[in-house]
């Protein structure tokens, strides 16, 4: 989504995503600090553990909103395709690594990396998809 | 979509999908069986190559899915499949993010990394079924 004239929906996407990431950092700090200093248990521990995940789930909803609001068919198609490549890439890496972990004693990779790989592959695929239409 | 109305291309794609999923299951069972044997090492190049085998048909499935989306001529079905895949992606990512924090803070058992594919496939299939049923 960089290096191109931004549509209205694109701007709204940025305006929504930035505060979501800020909330993520705040929630992550709260969870980290509380677990480190107070060692919570029970329902409160579950609530605290899920707290930083909420803004990340919200960031996915922000992308969903962008797709539904984007009136430029071409831009929407690029995002949808890059998301599918992102998901395909993330699942490929997790499947390959999962097999290595299960069978070849490779070290455990946190589940969080699926989310990280999704964004990395999504970002990498976008310029290539655009190139296809030139 | 699972009716007689399927086009030749849709039928072929469905057969290829089923074959690649079946192949993934068979190779996974073979690899499990191989590594269960006490004389078979779980380190070294051969072990890594064998461990990679089950992921190959899955990569083929991804390729098939992207090829299907690129070639499907029925705009309606294509839109429904795309929507279902996106919803499957959202559900999988939400699941992994929540699970990751539970894993990190509550020290619960790690989920097998190959299970995320199952979450994605099941979520996408349910979403597609719901879309097609509500469109009827």
Task: Describe the protein.
The complex is a heterodimer of chains A (134) and B (136). Chain A has 134 residues and is mainly α. Chain A has 2 domains: 1-70; 72-134. The mean pLDDT of chain A is 89. Chain A is flat. Chain A has helices spanning 8-38, 42-50, 53-69, 73-104, 112-132. Chain B is mainly alpha-helical and 136 residues long. Chain B has one domain (8-135). Helix content of chain B is 79%, strand content 0%. Chain B has 5 helices and no strands. Chain B has helices at 8-36, 44-52, 55-71, 75-105, 115-135. In chain B, helix 4 packs antiparallel against helix 5. The longest helix of chain B has 31 residues, at 75-105. Chains A and B meet through helix 2, helix 3, helix 4 and helix 5 of A and helix 1, helix 2, helix 3, helix 4 and helix 5 of B.
Describe the SSE topology.
The complex is a heterodimer of chains A (134) and B (136).
Chain A: H1 8-38, H2 42-50, H3 53-69, H4 73-104, H5 112-132
Helix pairs in contact in A: 1-3, 4-5
Chain B: H1 8-36, H2 44-52, H3 55-71, H4 75-105, H5 115-135
Helix pairs in contact in B: 1-3, 4-5
Question: What can be said about this structure in brief?
Answer:
The complex is a heterodimer of chains A (134) and B (136). Chain A contains 5 helices and no strands.
